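PROTEIN DATA CARD
Card holder: MA3 domain-containing protein
Chain length: 712
Origin: Forsythia ovata
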Amino acid sequence: MASREGFLTEGQREMLRIATENADVMSSLPLASSPKSTGPRSPSQTSFVLSENHHVKAPNGGQSAAAGGVAVRHVRRSHSGKSIRVKKDGAGGKGTWGKLLDTDGESFIDRNDPNYDSGGEPYELVGSTVSDPLDEYKKAVVSIIEEYFSTGDVEVAASCLKELGSSEYHPYFVKRLVSMAMDRHDKEKEMASVLLSALYADVINPTQIRQGFFMLLESADDLAVDILDTVDILALFIARAVVDDILPPSFIPRARKMLPETSKGFEVLQTAEKSYLSAPHHAELVERRWGGSTHLTVDEVKKKIAELLREYVENGDASEARRCIRQLGVPFFHHEVVKRALVLAMEISSAEPLIRKLLKEAADEGLISSSQMVKGFTRLAESLDDLALDIPSAKTLFQTLVPQAISEGWLDASYVKPLGENGEKPDKNDEKLFRYKEEVVIVIHEYFLSDDIPELIRSLEDLGAPAYNPIFLKKLISLAMDRKNREKEMASVLLSALHIEIFSTEDMVNGFVMLLESAEDTALDILDASNELAFFLARAVIDDVLAPLNLEEIASKLPPNCSGSETVHVAQSLIAARHAGERILRCWGGGTGWAVEDAKDKIQKLLEEYESGGVVSEACQCIRDLGMPFFNHEVVKKALVMAMEKKNDRMLDLLQECFGEGLITINQMTKGFNRIKDGLDDLALDIPNASDKFEFYVNHARERGWLLPVFG
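Structure generated from the sequence above:
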C-alpha cells in the first residue's frame, strides 16, 4: 500500500481515503444489500443511514455527493445506461477490468506450498463462555451441602463455606440448603436447621440469613410445583429459625408486607405464625418436629454394637467387624463393645474363641485402647450379680476370661490391682459409703417409677447420712443422664424440692463439683455428657437451686485443666442467652418443669386475687390444689415481694394461716425468706425501702417460729 501510494498525488490520496471510508460504512450497515437480504432497500433508507454517519464531499468544490452517498468519481454507467458502483479498493464491478493481480479463479492458501506462511491465514474467532461467579458459587455450595448431608459434620461444612469465599452470595447458600432439605427426609431437614444455627453470625451474618429466607418465600410458588407440602415445610423452617434465634420474630410481619397476599410465600408466613409460633409450648413442638438431635443416641449406638457382634459370631470375619467398630466413630464408647462382646462369649460358649480373637486384634492395632478395655471389664464385673440371673456360670466364666486376656496381652495387668495391693480389707467408712450408694440407687430408681417426691425425701431421712448428700446429687444426675428426657426433667425438679428441705446450697455446690471432676469418666458411658451437665447446671440456676455466683465458686474448686471448667462456661453462656429461662426450662421437653413455670403464674394470680379482697381459706385451698409442696417457697417469696410493693401486710396473715395448717413447712418458709435475702439488692432498685421491710418481716417471722434457727 505504501509503495502504491507513492505514485499518487495528494488529491488522489484524499479521494482514495474517502472512497475507502464510504465502502467500509456501507459494508458494515445491516441494511446493506447482500445475498442474505430479504428485500430491496429504498434509496431513502440509504441516504438516511449515511446522513447519520458521514457527509461525503465531492472533490470539486465541496458539492454534496450524489444520492446514495457515493462520490461522483466512483459512479460509472454501463452501455445500457445503468449506474454501476465501483467495488471496494477499486476492484470494479460487472464489465470492469477488476483489481490489479486479480485472477479469474478464486484464490486459496495451499499449506503444502513451499512459500506457505501461516501468518497469511485468516483469523478465526473462537467463542468462549464468560464464567459467572454466582453460577460457580451455586455449583460449589451444592457439593458442600451434599457432603454435609452424608457426613453430618458441621465443622467441615463451615470450613468449606469459609474457604469458598464470596460471602456476598451467602443468602443463596441459605436458600439452596433449605430447598434441598425440603425435598428430603426429616433427618436432612433437622440437619439443615442445625447447620444454619451453627453458621449464624460466625460464617453467615444475620442480614444474609434474613435475605436467604426472603428469597425462599419469593420462590415458594416455584417450589410448590415440585414439593407438594411446600407451605407447611417452609413455614416450619421459618418457625424453627425464630425459635433458634437466627430470625427475629419481626421478620414475619415485615416480610408479609413485601409479598402479594395471593402468593404461596404469604401463606407460608401465616402458617408459621398461626400454626407453629402461636401454639402452646411451640418451642418444644417446633424443635422436635423433625426428630430432635441429628446425632446417634446411646441406645442407637448400643443397638449397632449388638448387631455387628452377632453378625461377626455368625460369619467369623474379624476384619469386617473391626471396620464396623471403626465406622461407628465413638472411640470413647468402645468399652461398650468390650462389655457386650464378653457377655456374648458367656451366652454362646462356641463364640468365646472368636470374641477373644476380635478383642485381641482390636487391641493390637489400637482400635480399642487399654483404658477402654479395662473400663469394659470393670463394667461387666459390676453387673455380674444381675448377669448371673440369666447366666448362672457368669462369675466363673468371668474369672476364667480375666487371666486369659492378661496372658494374651489385650488386658492390662493393672486391672486386678484395685482390689488391694496387699489384699487389705476396706475400712468401715468405705463399707458404709458403699452401702449408701447401693441404697440411694434403689431410692432413685423408685422415684423415677413413682414420681413421688415426699416418699423419696422420707427415704433419704431414714438413711440418716446428710454428709453424703453431695454423693446423692452426683448419683441422681449420673443416672438421669443415662436415661430419657423424662428422668432428666424429674431429676431437676427433685433438686429444687430437696434444696433447703434437706439439702443446703453447699451440698448442691459440692455435688456438682464431684460431677464435673468425674466428667471425663462420665463421658465414657454418656456420649453428650458435657452438654447434659451444662444444662443441669443452668437449670439449677433458673430454678434458684444455685445462684449465678455459685457457678464461679464451682469453677474455682475444680482442679487445673479439668474439662469440667469448660462445662461451667457453657452453662454460663446458656444462662446469658436471650429468653434463657424459657428455653432452659424446656430443654428436656417441658413436662414437670413447665408445670413449675405454670405454677408460678398460678401463684401470682391467687396472691393478686387474695390481695384484692379474697378469703384466706380459698387462697390456702388454691395453694393446696397446686399439688407442689416442694415449691411452696415460691408462695413465700411472691407474697413477701407483693407485701413490699403494695405496702399491705395482709400477706403476712396468709403466710401465718399456711404455716399454722402445715401447708407451708418451716423448711419451705426458710427457703422463701432466703431467696428474698439473696435478691435484696435487685429488689431495692424497684422498692427503695426493701431492706427495712425485709428486716421487719424477718423479725415478724422469728417471733412466730416460721424460720429455722440457722437462718441469717
